[in-house]
Design brief:
The chain is of the alpha/beta class. Helix 16 crosses helix 18 (about 575-590) and helix 16 packs across helix 21. The longest helix has 27 residues, at about 665-690. It is globular and about 90 Å long. Bound molecules: zinc ion (2 copies) and fe (iii) ion (FE).
Length: about 750
């Protein structure tokens, strides 16, 4: 006897080929009915034999498209209904279409197979299907249909059209569908020589890389610069060309196997690096690539091929690894236009490889790491954005402009927050344009008509000024409150928590620079319960680039102005005239704003240990001291807990240890443990006072693997429920989401 079932599938099931998948599965099991997209997922009705329906249900989970994430499958028995066939019903609700902007998806196994066997597509480097290929990077407008993407100029050939129309085909309604005959083509420009024909191109590129050349190649969301990661000379030249002194380069490896020679990888890390999102994953180094790749860091930012072209290239390359870095100079956004590539990147590289499909939305590679078996995003871009973040409250019509340095912005759409891709440092003029243009695009793409714009409390942030220029209602949100709220949002928390926000900098409600904060936090408001003691920052913001100045400031506060005679290498090697001037400025508080920043404390200790006295890139000093840290060390230094937390005893002990010849890696270990013990002790203090046992960890300092790992351990062991970031960066890339949710909460309480 035939029965009818209604099935609701929730999760990431839109824009990833889910409906055609259900269609094919239903046919295979000889079921009739329909499938359609709803704003909360996919809805299915099937009539058929009970057994067939059972098998169908099992296979939904088993065979779901790679890029889909099924959160739940709910089955409901309903009265028998007769259907003549199985159909895909197009949704009429506009809001459904809006969530259909899928992130870009790495090429799938089946397409790779087609690239070797399907005659029309042998070696076709832009092969894709409903399960894989470009998405967000090519979308101009919604709904997601070919004419509204940068595939519009390419007219499908008859064979592609047949596949596109055939509901049984893997390329049914694959908007970027293409083949050698009708799709976009690659070309290689090398001086005056232009190479066309993919096999000639791949051979030439492989040869050039083998000879140590730097090349610019067009990726999914922008150009990248590549060279052999085993040739020091090439990597060093690339550093010079990019004007990038210290920061490690990302590396693309041929395969998991090749990668395992150079880096240690556990199962969670392997799952992440092979996932369709294909982020750069920060792994522990096992064997050295060319020294300039990681520049004395003991980690490797590794990734695997994600475009068909990458696979073709590795088939010809001898090297197992290539440096794979954004095609830009210093802080500029990555180049996306072919013209600009010729203008800016051609002079740095031996050849420029492009293809004639336009990149509409710029999107950099994402960066992640695994801590405590969980994925932790450092930069949320390709493969992740613009996947919406589910909220408990309505955020319609709210936009948030984020922080200034690692900017992302956020727009509210119903009970969803759509966080932009990584934008970058707004002080760079071109990044600023990228920000303004992208925000306009998001408003149009997701049909957001903003009635409220949220910004940081800092009046001088360019993101704040932009918000104030829009002429709509504005709201200011404190930086560290936003950090904690962003993490609360990730875990759907809407109750009072202890928020531990440790980072480099953010303006506080008292006009001073915060960054070592313990907040009693709700979504709508917070109370500052404890913080690191303020210290004067000589020259204010400039101290960020010169950790030695902050180091000196800590020494002055602990040992007085005579600290130059401490007899440790750090003070001995300082230019004493220059140092005396700084000490004078500190004593008289001349241009020395006060800061409670955790990042600056890491800077100071890093400088005093002479690990990093001058910083060449953002957060270099904290990253170096973490990298040096001896993880076996169990002891910690003393600190004075309380509403104002003093690290004076720790600084004194560090100086003693240096005098006693203790190895810097041991001192670094003890220092890390000090921060962890501080987080633990102060959280306990607040729990005792308030009875609140939920701790939320956020801020850039939690990108420090040791701090995050051990804080989680210590707190959990003591019965705290602890929440840390996963898919939302703990750095300023998450600020906009926090701002948005705080505003939504305040609005729901009628405070706006
Ligand atoms: Zn595919
Ligand atoms: Zn074709
Ligand atoms: Fe921050």
């Amino acid at each position: 006897m035939e029965v009818t079932r209604r099935i609701r599938i929730a999760g990431l099931v839109q824009g990833v080929g889910f409906r055609p998948f259900i269609y094919r599965l239903a046919h295979r099991h000889e079921l009739r009915g329909w499938v359609l997209n709803r704003n909360d997922g996919v809805s299915v009705a099937v009539s058929g034999e009970e057994e067939a329906i059972g098998a169908f249900l099992r296979n939904i989970r088993r065979e779901a498209p790679a890029a889909s994430v099924i959160r739940s499958v709910r089955v409901e028995k309903v009265e028998y209904q007769f259907f003549g066939d199985f159909r895909i019903i197009r949704s009429e609700d506009q809001s459904v279409e809006i969530t259909e902007v899928s992130p870009d998806i790495a090429v799938c196994e089946e397409c790779l197979d087609d690239m070797h066997h399907q005659p029309r597509r042998v070696g076709y480097p832009l092969i894709n299907c409903t399960h894989c290929g470009p998405r967000f990077s090519i979308i101009r407008e919604l709904p997601y249909d070919r004419p509204l993407t940068t595939m519009a100029p390419f007219i499908m050939c008859n064979d592609c059209h047949k596949e596109y129309d055939d509901v049984g085909d893997r390329r049914f309604h694959a908007q970027p569908i293409a083949c050698h005959l009708c799709g976009p083509q690659y070309r290689l420009v090398r001086g005056n020589t232009i190479t066309e024909g993919i096999f000639d191109i791949v051979d030439t590129v492989a040869q050039m890389v083998g000879h140590g050349a730097i090349l610019a190649i067009k990726g999914v969301g922008g150009y990248q610069l590549i060279c052999d990661a085993l040739q020091e000379d090439a990597v060093a030249r690339l550093r010079l060309a990019k004007n990038r002194e210290g920061k490690p380069f990302a590396v693309m490896f041929r395969s998991v196997r090749a990668l395992q020679d150079y880096a240690l990888m556990n199962r969670a890390e392997e799952e992440l690096i092979t996932s369709w999102r294909r982020p750069v994953v920060i792994l522990r180094e096992r064997k050295k690539l060319a020294p300039s790749v990681s520049n004395l860091f003991n980690t490797i930012g590794a990734m695997l091929p994600y475009m068909p072209f990458h696979y073709l290239l590795f088939e010809r390359l001898k090297t197992p690894a290539i440096v794979f870095t954004s095609g830009n100079i210093s802080d500029e956004p990555i180049v996306i236009s072919d013209e600009l590539a010729m203008e800016r990147l051609a002079p740095l590289s031996a050849a420029v490889l492009s293809y004639n499909r336009e990149i509409h939305n710029r999107i950099d590679d994402s960066v992640a790491m695994v801590v405590k078996r969980q994925e932790r995003l450092v930069r949320r871009s390709r493969g992740y954005a613009p996947e919406p973040v589910g909220l408990k409250i309505n955020a319609e019509g709210i936009i948030a402009t984020g922080a200034e340095l690692a900017n992302c912005f956020c727009v509210g759409k119903g009970k969803q927050a759509i966080l932009s891709q990584h934008i970058g440092d707004l002080k760079n003029a071109e990044t600023w344009e990228f920000f303004a243009e992208s925000l306009q695009r998001f408003k149009r793409l997701f049909r957001v008509d903003p009635s409220l714009v949220v910004h940081d409390m800092h009046p001088d942030y360019l993101s704040t000024r932009y918000a104030q220029s829009l002429g709509i209602n504005t709201m200011a949100v404190q930086h560290h409150h936003a950090h904690i709220a962003s993490c609360m949002t990730e875990h759907l928390l809407d109750e009072p928590v202890i928020g531990v926000a440790l980072d480099g900098t953010g303006l506080g409600t008292d006009g001073r620079i915060w960054g070592g904060e313990f907040l009693l936090c709700r979504l709508d408001d917070f109370e500052r319960k404890a913080h690191f003691e303020y210290i004067p920052l000589p020259g204010g913001d400039a101290a960020v680039k010169e950790p030695w100045k902050t180091g000196l400031s800590y020494l002055v506060r602990v040992f007085g102005p005579d600290c130059l005679r401490l007899g440790i290498p750090f003070t001995d090697q300082l230019n004493h005239e220059q140092a005396a001037l700084i000490i004078q400025a500190i004593s008289r508080r001349l241009n020395c704003p006060e800061s409670s920043s955790a990042g600056r404390l890491f800077d100071a200790v890093s400088a005093i240990l002479r690990i990093c006295e001058v910083s060449r890139f953002h957060a270099e000093a904290p990253m170096r001291i973490e990298s040096l840290c001896d993880r076996r060390v169990k002891e910690h230094y003393e600190f004075i807990p309380g509403p104002v937390i003093s690290f004076d005893p720790a600084i004194r002990q560090i100086v003693n240890d240096i005098r006693n010849g203790i190895h810097p890696s041991v001192i670094a270990g003890r220092f890390h443990n000090t921060i962890i013990h501080c987080i633990f002790a102060v959280s306990r203090m607040i729990r005792e006072e308030t009875g609140i046992g939920n701790v939320v960890l956020s801020g850039g300092s939690f990108q420090n693997r040791i701090v995050l790992e051990r804080s989680l351990d210590f707190l959990r062991r003591d019965g705290f429920r602890v929440f840390a970031h996963r898919r939302i960066p703990s750095n300023d890339g998450g600020i906009a989401l926090g701002q948005l949710v705080i505003a939504a909460k305040r609005r729901s309480l009628g405070c706006v």
